[in-house]
Structure formats: C-alpha cells, structure tokens
Specification:
6 helices, globular
Length: 412
C-alpha cells in the first residue's frame, strides 16, 4: 500500500463559471444568480475545499462572492478599457458570513453547481461605479485548492483534511468559462408585483390522496407593460420544494429537510421564448407544486398528526425588462437587463381566514356571517389583518388515508 506522500492526487477536476450578463444594483444586489460548476472526472469520489464555498442548510452549499474576490479566485476588469480593477477597500469589506465548506463530489463526471451570492454592503464599499460595465472572470487558468480522494464518514460528513500535512492535500484544478458582463446601476425603479401562496387544503394526507399542493400567484400592479424571464425566476430550475419553502415542525421547532434533485448540465442551460411572460396591469401568473407521494416524495419527509408552518423563501424575480414580450424578447435574449431583482409584496391569498369562517357558517346553516355580533366580526377581521402573508400552516393526518374534520390552525 502506498504512503500518503506517494499516493496519486486527484488531477481531473475542473471548475467553470456559468452566466452571460447581469445587472448589479448597488442597493438591491445582483439581478439574477450565477454559479460555478465543479466537475469530478476521476473514477473515485473526492473531498475538496474551494475558496468561498460555505455551508448552507442540509446538504446545500452556497458561494460567497466577496470571499472569492478576497482569496483571488475572481478578477474584475473595466468593460471598456479591459484594465484590472483594484479593490482598495476589499479587506475592509471582507467578513465571512458562515462556515467554510468541505464537500464530497462523487465519481463519474458529475457536474455540481453552487449559487454565487454576495453581501450588498461589501460590494457597495469596493469602489464599483454606477453606469459602468465590468467583466468578471477567474483570475488564473488554474487554482490550487485542497482536494483529495475521500469517502463519506459514518456521520455523513467528509473526511477532514490533515492539519499536519497540508501541502500533500493541495492540487491544481483548471478554471474556465465566463467572462460575465456586469452592468452596475444605482437604485433603478423596480416594477411592483404582489405575491401570495396557499395550500390546497389545511390537511395533508400521508397517503398522497387527495394530492396536496402549494399554489402561488403573482400579480402585476403597474400600468406600464413589463416582461419577465421566468427561466431565471425562483419558480424554474428548482431542486424541488426544498428551494421554494422552509418548513418547520411546530411541535419541535425543527426545520424539515425536503427532497431535492441535483441537476447536472453539460454546459449552461438557456431560456427559450416560452420562458418569457408579459405582464400588463392586473395580469396574474399562477403556478402549482404538488407534494410528491411515495418513499422518495416530499410527504415521506413529514410525520403523521403534526402541524407544520411553511415560509416562502424564493421570492425574487431577477430578469425583467419594461415593454411587451414582442418588444423586448430579442434584447432579453442577449442578456440585457435594466435593474435589480423584483421583490413582490406579499399579500393574503383567498381563501382568507374570514372566508373560511363564512363558509363554515353557511355549511352548518348557522346564519349569515354578517349577522354575527359586531365584536366577534371585528375580532375575526383583526386576526386576518395581523396574519403573516409569508407563512402558512397545515397539518398531516393520522396516515390511515381516511379524511378528518378540519381543526383550527394558527393564523400567524
């Protein structure tokens, strides 16, 4: 058996920068996500640490763009002159926000993408100028990182790197892709939208029948036509409900780890004309996601006779342009954008709490809702007004598949 000093190191590892162009609003942030893809073409799994990778919830890993700049992974250039941009204030702006991540990438040429994120206060302090174009690319054709052949330990974590023999864990990986063109703007007026979500029932059957679904509705409040590229929205390219909502068991306070799917692409996926949606005043766009049944579905992550609260986490719409679809399709195809991401206002979706109470009265023939004592009606509508539109409650049944009577759930 070879010693660790002579054992072959991973060599067929590469990282690619994926995106075309985007807008950086110095107040609101990047107009859409962009990512790095790390590929393992070795015949065995590897564990690696790439500067900027950070641990997220569950098995999810994000990327800290400021950390990448700080460590010299990326470089900015002025779009016109091509001169490198010096970050005189980068050290002052740099503060890590979470724990650096070591990740396992399995064999077989699998492609893994990590969302590039940034801290607005950091990019505001490094001297980027509104109205200017910049190019971002890897600073070098190869990057020396910690990487070794590895297996997952019994507790599910990667085998740690050796602190006493760090040089033996360093390998060179190839860097490619890009550059990404970034237009910097300052506080561009953003179109106004309303967003609501609700579940198709207050009870989720553990059998999956009837289907239990999450419904979302996006409504445009402006009068000027606007077109959204839904391919870059939080509602497309999802790894599952995992990317859309955060689910908490109200009895334990613990977050549920929903199922997710790892997407692998040979190259960068592209939007098609069908991905563009035109919005005029009052236009609504609706989507629905069904909780999957069976051992590999989302329902398998839940427990029977429990109450859960769901919070919508994916709400920004990054790629948009004022104008009709016919007017802007060619412009948006080329990656042009005008401002930061759209953050819709959350609002209460029907059926609201008051609607539910009214329906119960009608069903039980208890008399018309408006004849209730004024004090009771005021209390009902007061609860409705104080409810949190970004959170929804539901509960699971006993798992027998038989319907149960609906019980009252928390309003907020």
């Amino acid at each position: 058996m070879m010693s660790s000093s002579t054992e072959r190191k991973p060599a067929r590892i590469s990282v690619t920068l994926l995106s075309d162009s985007l807008v950086l609003d110095l107040k609101r942030g990047f107009s859409k996500n962009f990512g790095i893809c790390i590929r393992n073409d070795e015949s065995k799994p590897i564990t690696l640490y790439f500067p900027g990778l950070q641990k997220g919830k569950g098995t999810y890993t994000s990327y800290d763009f400021i950390e990448g700049l700080h460590k010299g992974v990326f470089q900015f250039q002025h779009g016109e002159s091509g001169e490198s941009f010096a970050f005189d204030n980068l050290k002052q702006a740099h503060t890590m926000t979470s724990e650096p991540a070591q990740v396992i990438i399995y064999a077989g040429g699998c492609l893994y993408s990590y969302v590039l994120t940034h801290r607005p206060e950091g990019l505001n302090n490094i001297g980027l100028q509104a109205g200017e174009d910049y190019l971002v690319h890897f600073a070098h054709a190869s990057q020396r990182i910690k990487c070794k052949f590895s297996e997952r330990r019994e507790d599910g974590t990667p085998e740690p790197f050796s602190a006493s023999d760090e040089q033996n864990d360093l390998v060179d990986i190839s860097c490619g892709g890009g550059p990404i063109k970034i237009r910097v703007v300052q506080d561009v007026p953003i179109p106004r939208f309303q967003l609501s979500f609700h579940f198709t029932s207050s009870i989720c059957s553990m059998s999956g029948s009837p289907p239990f679904a999450l419904k979302l509705s996006l409504k445009y409040l402006g009068s000027r036509p606007v077109t959204l590229n839904m391919f870059f929205s939080p509602w497309d390219g999802l790894q599952g409900l995992y990317d859309l909502i955060k689910l908490i068991d109200t009895a334990t306070g613990k977050e549920v780890e929903l199922r997710y799917v790892s997407w692998c692409f040979d190259g960068q996926p592209m939007a098609t004309p069908d991905d563009f949606e035109e919005f005029n005043e009052g236009t609504e766009y609706n989507r629905e996601w069904i909780f999957g049944a069976g051992p590999d579905g989302d329902i398998a992550c839940l427990e029977s006779n429990r109450t859960y609260v769901a919070e919508l986490i994916a709400t920004q719409f990054p790629c948009w342009q004022y104008g009709t679809k016919a007017d802007v399709l060619g412009i948006m195809d080329s990656g042009h954008q005008v401002g930061g991401p759209i953050q819709p206002e959350m609002f209460e979706a029907a059926p609201s709490f008051a609607n539910i109470i009214e329906n119960i009265f009608e069903r039980e023939q208890a008399g018309p809702f408006f004849r209730l004592p004024r004090e009771l009606r005021d209390q009902i509508y007061g609860n409705l007004k104080s409810s949190n539109p970004s959170r929804r409650f539901f509960r699971t049944d006993a798992g027998s598949g038989s319907p149960e009577d609906e019980e009252s759930l928390p309003i907020d």
